[in-house]
Design brief:
The protein has one domain: Maltoporin, Chain A (Beta Barrel). The chain contains five helices and 34 strands. A hairpin with a 7-residue loop joins strand 1 and strand 2. The protein starts with a helix and ends with a strand.
């Protein structure tokens, strides 16, 4: 009752606030790139997408990237403790290694685990995030069974020199400091950023964890990150550029009662490119990139894992009389050094795509062929069609295939006879349909999907190698709605997910059947305040519906107040009611946490 009364009072208070400027003047329709690798307005894309802009990132306050993603439609995350702890993320029920993560177009992640370490990516260096829900192997190749998350780092601009300095502190002796400088003109654009974030953390283990692994110490975290970019336009139509993001640090965790268990991590992504517009209709981009995922797990022994992924991509865009044609050729290599695993995998790919709108009709076609080490090949494709009933109503439907390559652990790990070099890719077939209503700053969408995943890689029994033995159904629907009422911004989402192991009839681990979010923001002439409500149904933390975790609801508050045009106070209170909940069996989560910061943004 107390939680309901608090929410009602806060919503009522937000509705009574006034503003001297219209929030709707700030509403611009987002442009997405990730859905097709060609720029499109959200209203034109036939994919199920979300865009998180810099304003939303700053409103996240103390939150981590995984916490920010957990508030997005169709995405759920779990954590083995507080900040920096091992995390998983699910898109439409597909687990971390069944999704692709990109940073500025560069694929990142560990080839041993098969997943990206989102918990180590600093929000301070991110400009925007695009999420594509649904299979995207026909665009991005292996592992895009559930979807794609693309992170864009902060860049230079041609609007003069601007500085962004931030310092903040909060609960659990958490503090953060960052500085970002950008500038440029018509020819040059430059940016450089740095940040440090640290916390004493919490005891990551709760009473359900085995006593032998329940070390009562605090599990702290520190992250130091740097980013930068340079682009140069020597002549009209030619652009040369480079960008990078580097983060390193340490997070502590519990695996034994008396040892000081910790991970020492270092992640890097960077690329250099040449973009050439040969004519008004035809352009190409050549990109060379490298991503490094490295960490040492230090317990009573030291285990080291390092993945270096290099890629070379040449893509071309051609504007046709109807639509845009996209083609790409790519070479990727994955080098792994993980003690007992020292291996390399090469992947060569060809892709072709076409997207168009003609009158009331929209179409998207993509096809891709991937060849990888071991003389194996995989072809994927997708087709989507949309019909505009009116200027405000649109129907759309699509079908796509995807696959996931086995991780290096699944192929080669000798531990418990786990690895199997003959195991093959997982594959999926997805059908979806939806309806969208959009009028100026208001939008409502409903998307229903049915994703059948075959050949799931599992270990059939202890001390037996993994096999392609399982089949899963990921079926559900996502509803999104957003609008303005005066100067009050409202947004909400609801997810219904049926994620089942079809061979056993049990729900898949760590997937909630129902989840949702509600956000209310009141825009004012000198800032904004907001409230978030997050809801999640129960989950099972282990296979065959073991280790049940109850559902939960969380209330978060946030706000920004501009003292001057250049100086702002930012604050966030997460888990207002100090809810005791868990997203992973045996691991604690943060209770009520307060974080307050000051941001200084002068222009020169």
């Amino acid at each position: 009752m107390h939680s309901r009364t608090t929410v009602a009072a806060l919503l009522a208070g937000a509705g009574l606030l006034s503003s001297s400027v219209s929030a709707q003047t700030h509403v611009l329709e987002p442009v997405v790139i990730t859905a097709t690798r060609v720029e499109q307005r959200v209203s034109d894309t036939l994919s199920d997408v979300s865009v998180i802009d810099r304003e939303q990132i700053e409103a996240a306050g103390q939150s981590t990237l995984t916490e920010l993603l957990a508030r997005q439609p169709g995405v759920r995350t779990t954590s083995n403790g507080g900040m920096g702890s091992n995390s998983e993320f699910f898109i439409r029920g597909a687990e971390s290694k069944q999704n692709v993560v990109l940073i500025d177009g560069v694929r990142v992640g560990s080839a041993t685990s098969g997943a990206a370490s989102l918990q180590y990516l600093p929000l301070s260096q991110i400009e925007r995030i695009e999420i594509v829900r649904g299979p995207a192997s026909a665009v991005y190749g292996a592992d895009a069974v559930g979807g794609v998350i693309q992170i864009f780092t902060r860049r230079g601009s041609d609007e003069g020199v601007a500085l962004d300095v931030f310092a903040g502190a909060g609960t659990h002796d958490t503090n953060e400091a960052s500085a970002f400088l950008r500038g440029g003109d018509e020819r040059w654009k430059l940016s450089l950023g740095a940040s440090v974030q640290r916390t004493d953390g919490i005891n990551a283990s709760n009473r359900f964890r085995a006593a032998s692994a329940r070390n009562p110490d605090l599990d702290g975290y520190i992250n130091r990150s740097y980013s930068g970019s340079v682009s140069f336009t020597p002549v009209r139509g030619t652009e040369l550029g480079t960008q990078f993001l580097h983060s390193s640090g340490r997070n502590r965790f519990d695996s034994r009662l008396t040892t000081d268990d910790r991970n020492e991590f270092e992640n890097y992504s960077g690329s250099a490119y040449i973009r050439q517009s040969w004519t008004e209709e035809f352009s190409t981009t050549l990109r060379v990139a490298r991503a490094v995922d490295s960490y040492d797990s230090i317990t009573n022994v030291v285990s080291s894992f390092r993945t270096v992924e290099d890629s070379v991509t040449l893509d071309a865009r051609l504007k046709l009389g109807v639509g845009t044609l996209f083609a790409a050729a790519e070479h990727r290599s994955q080098d792994v050094d993980a003690g007992v695993i020292d291996r390399r995998r090469d992947i060569d790919s060809l892709q072709l795509g076409w997207s168009a709108r003609y009158g009331a009709h929209s179409m998207q076609l993509n096809g891709r062929h991937d060849s990888f080490s071991g003389n194996r090949n995989k072809s994927t494709g997708n087709i989507a069609y949309g019909y505009h009933l009116t200027d405000e109503w649109r129907l759309h439907a699509g079908y796509g295939t995807a696959f996931r390559l086995p991780s290096f652990n699944e192929l080669y790990s000798p531990t418990s006879n786990f690895g199997n070099p003959d195991v093959g890719p997982e594959s999926s077939r997805n059908k979806e349909a939806g309806v969208v209503w959009q009028r100026r700053s208001s939008r409502v969408s409903l998307t229903a999907y049915d994703n059948q995943v075959d050949g799931l890689i599992q270990q059939p029994a202890t001390n037996r190698p993994v096999q392609n033995v399982a089949h899963a159904t990921l079926r559900g629907a996502t509803v999104e709605a957003s609008t303005y009422v005066g100067h009050t911004e409202l947004s909400a989402s609801y997810d219904l997910l049926h994620a089942m192991d079809d061979d056993t009839g049990f729900r898949l681990r760590r997937r909630a059947v129902q989840s949702g979010t509600l956000t209310v923001q009141q825009h004012m002439s000198r800032g904004r305040i907001g409230i978030e409500v997050m809801l999640s149904g129960d989950t099972y933390s282990s296979a065959r519906e073991r280790d049940r975790l109850g559902g939960y609801s969380l209330i978060n508050l946030f706000g920004v107040w501009k003292v001057t045009p250049e100086l702002a106070l930012e604050g966030r209170l997460n888990n207002l009611t100090d809810k005791d909940y868990s997203t992973a069996y045996g691991y604690a989560t943060l209770g009520a946490t307060l974080f307050i910061g000051v941001r200084y943004t002068p222009r020169f």
